């Protein structure tokens, strides 16, 4: 079966500091892959290259029949609004917008009417148990509530691939596992593949498969969580 998303020979440096050293990875339809390893090993850089947020210095990133590493920023941004979803550790909700407005944002950017975008946003807030916060701004929410809203926003366009960068890292253990379980249930129902960056072995255990990084390269021993976890 042809992978949904694949990268070969990814190299990325920040100035003189290498972050990725020839990484290969493949993601299948509906697969949950945990990218693990100690702090500074290149996990977030890999995720950002796969999602088209960053361009690799060398190597290729293919999504279906597209070489996204060579596409324009506008094309990659559109891809993240339609085919990809991105979820960060701290949610990164827009503080001036309500929960419903935050969740509706990808749809509005895609040309939806405000009325229809809000209707769908409310449905997604309901899936994560925070519909009552529809007209509340992030500053008046708990961390868990904010992250549930961020999860709803990342899935509202029903992406084929969700990139989640330490999505529970800012939450306590119980809340983090609840949010992750909810995210995975919904993603499984709609067949979304998930690339999950984590340094936490408990979170990685939810995955179908683990790709361990060490010093910017795939660790063939699979022991990427062994240091700095």
From TrEMBL:
<dbReference type="InterPro" id="IPR015854">
    <property type="entry name" value="ABC_transpr_LolD-like"/>
</dbReference>
<dbReference type="InterPro" id="IPR003439">
    <property type="entry name" value="ABC_transporter-like_ATP-bd"/>
</dbReference>
<dbReference type="InterPro" id="IPR017911">
    <property type="entry name" value="MacB-like_ATP-bd"/>
</dbReference>
<keyword id="KW-0547">Nucleotide-binding</keyword>
<dbReference type="GO" id="GO:0022857">
    <property type="term" value="F:transmembrane transporter activity"/>
</dbReference>
<dbReference type="InterPro" id="IPR003593">
    <property type="entry name" value="AAA+_ATPase"/>
</dbReference>
<dbReference type="Pfam" id="PF00005">
    <property type="entry name" value="ABC_tran"/>
</dbReference>
<feature type="domain" description="ABC transporter">
    <location>
        <begin position="5"/>
        <end position="227"/>
    </location>
</feature>
<dbReference type="GO" id="GO:0005886">
    <property type="term" value="C:plasma membrane"/>
</dbReference>
<keyword id="KW-0067">ATP-binding</keyword>
<protein>
    <submittedName>
        <fullName>Putative ABC transport system ATP-binding protein</fullName>
    </submittedName>
</protein>
<keyword id="KW-0813">Transport</keyword>
<dbReference type="GO" id="GO:0016887">
    <property type="term" value="F:ATP hydrolysis activity"/>
</dbReference>
<dbReference type="GO" id="GO:0005524">
    <property type="term" value="F:ATP binding"/>
</dbReference>
<dbReference type="InterPro" id="IPR027417">
    <property type="entry name" value="P-loop_NTPase"/>
</dbReference>
């Amino acid at each position: 079966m042809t992978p949904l998303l694949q990268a070969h020979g990814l190299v990325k440096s920040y100035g003189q500091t290498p972050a990725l050293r020839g990484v290969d990875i493949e993601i299948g339809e509906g697969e949950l892959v945990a990218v693990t390893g100690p702090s500074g090993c290149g996990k977030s850089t890999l995720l950002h290259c796969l999602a088209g947020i960053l361009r690799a210095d060398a190597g290729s990133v293919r999504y279906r029949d597209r070489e996204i590493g060579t596409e324009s920023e506008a094309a990659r941004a559109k891809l993240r609004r339609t085919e990809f979803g991105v979820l960060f550790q701290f949610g990164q909700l827009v503080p001036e917008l309500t929960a419903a407005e935050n969740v509706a944002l990808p749809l509005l950017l895609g040309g939806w009417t405000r009325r229809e975008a809000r209707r769908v946003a409310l449905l997604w807030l309901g899936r994560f148990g925070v519909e009552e916060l529809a007209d509340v701004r992030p500053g008046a929410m708990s961390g868990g509530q904010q992250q549930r809203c961020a999860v709803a926003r990342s899935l509202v366009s029903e992406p084929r691939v969700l990139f989640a960068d330490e999505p529970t890292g800012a939450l306590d253990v119980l809340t983090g596992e609840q949010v992750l379980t909810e995210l995975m249930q919904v993603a499984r129902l709609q067949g979304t593949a998930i690339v999950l960056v984590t340094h936490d072995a408990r979170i990685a255990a939810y995955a179908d498969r683990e790709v361990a990084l060490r010093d910017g390269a795939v660790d063939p021993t699979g022991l990427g969580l062994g240091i700095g976890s």
